[in-house]
Amino acid sequence: MSKDSNIFLSVVIPSYNESTNFKEGCLNKILPYLEQQKYHYELIFSDDGSSDQTVSLLKQFISENETKLKHGTISLLMNKHGGKTSAVMNGIKHAKGEWKLFTDFDQSTDIKEIEKLLPYTGKNFDIIFGSRKINPKAVEAKWYREFIGNTFNLIVRTITGLKIRDTQCGFKLFSKKGAKLFDKLYVYDPKRVSETGAFTGAFDVELFVIAKNKGLDVKEVPIKWKHHDTNRVNIVKDSARMFSDIIKIKRAKRKGYYD
Ligand SMILES: Nc1nc2c(ncn2[C@@H]2O[C@H](COP(=O)(O)OP(=O)(O)O)[C@@H](O)[C@H]2O)c(=O)[nH]1
Ligand SMILES: [Mg+2]
């Protein structure tokens, strides 16, 4: 059987100027872990137009590893810089697995944590996702990011009516049906990014609102998470923009854009 037949798990990793993280070895555990599993997998890097050495480091990583893999494949997609949404979305679109995970490059959540999500597959959930707010003891975060995260989640719950405690954790597993929700993004439609500018953003919230509108079930699962410093998140600017995006999502829902 060829390595890409019957792929069970696709792992999509967006990358944007990750050479420091790469050199610190943040990818060291992922292939050894995936190779030990009984299922077939694919690992897809989706680069968001990095301007540092990320692309050449990833190409080297791929050529050093691809011939050794027994149960999976690795590939690299190169996108124009468009922010996390477009990088993740393009990766998810290319993914052929029965289940498709996206996880942050810095591996704030270790790939092994997938074992906490997998028990919920086959139970009619279309998004099974990591949460840092159910078991805070498993989370090593910066106090100010935690404070802002809590405030953000409270605002999201109030404005959208979602019952989710942590919409923003970068560790989410989609069924094939769940993955199609990306096509319905309106506020975070990557085509509009030229008007709005690239950033990490709250596309997750929009996906959850669309899922709810369509009557899909989602499952929030506590996972371990460890903060990695990033100098890309501008707390004040990004928070203000995320807040205004939540209002836009609410408005889009009212106008029936997700129907
Ligand atoms: N901040 C940021 N992250 C991006 C962008 N495009 C892709 N990403 C990816 O989104 C993920 C999360 O980014 P990170 O800086 O770790 O954000 P944090 O975990 O929220 O602090 C990483 O895998 C990045 O490579 C972008 O334009 N801005
Ligand atoms: Mg991070």
Overall 3D shape: globular
Could you tell me the CATH topology label: Spore Coat Polysaccharide Biosynthesis Protein SpsA, Chain A
Tell me the Rg in angstroms.
17 Å
Number of helices: 10
Major β-sheet profile: 7 strands, mixed
Strand arrangement, major sheet: 3-2-1-4-7-5-8
Number of strands: 9
Task: Determine the N-to-C terminus distance.
Answer: 41 Å
The hetero molecules present are: guanosine-5'-diphosphate, magnesium ion
- Class, according to the CATH hierarchy? Alpha Beta
CATH superfamily: Spore Coat Polysaccharide Biosynthesis Protein SpsA, Chain A
Uncertain runs: none
Structural class label: alpha/beta
Order of helices and strands: EHHEHEHEHEEHEHHHEEH
Describe this structure in words.
The protein is α/β, with parallel strands linked by helices and 259 residues long. 37% of the residues lie in helices and 20% in strands. It has a single domain, classed as Spore Coat Polysaccharide Biosynthesis Protein SpsA, Chain A (Alpha-Beta Complex), CATH 3.90.550. It contains ten helices and nine strands. The chain has a seven-stranded mixed sheet, with helices on both faces. A two-stranded parallel ribbon has the order 6-9. Helix 3 (54-65) links the parallel strand 2 (40-47) and strand 3. Helix 6 (143-160) runs parallel beside helix 10 (235-254). The protein is globular and about 50 Å long. It binds guanosine-5'-diphosphate and magnesium ion. Guanosine-5'-diphosphate binds next to strand 1 and helix 4.
Give short descriptive properties of this protein:
globular; two-stranded parallel ribbon; 9 strands; binds guanosine-5'-diphosphate; 10 helices; alpha/beta; 7-stranded mixed sheet; Spore Coat Polysaccharide Biosynthesis Protein SpsA, Chain A; binds magnesium ion; about 260 residues
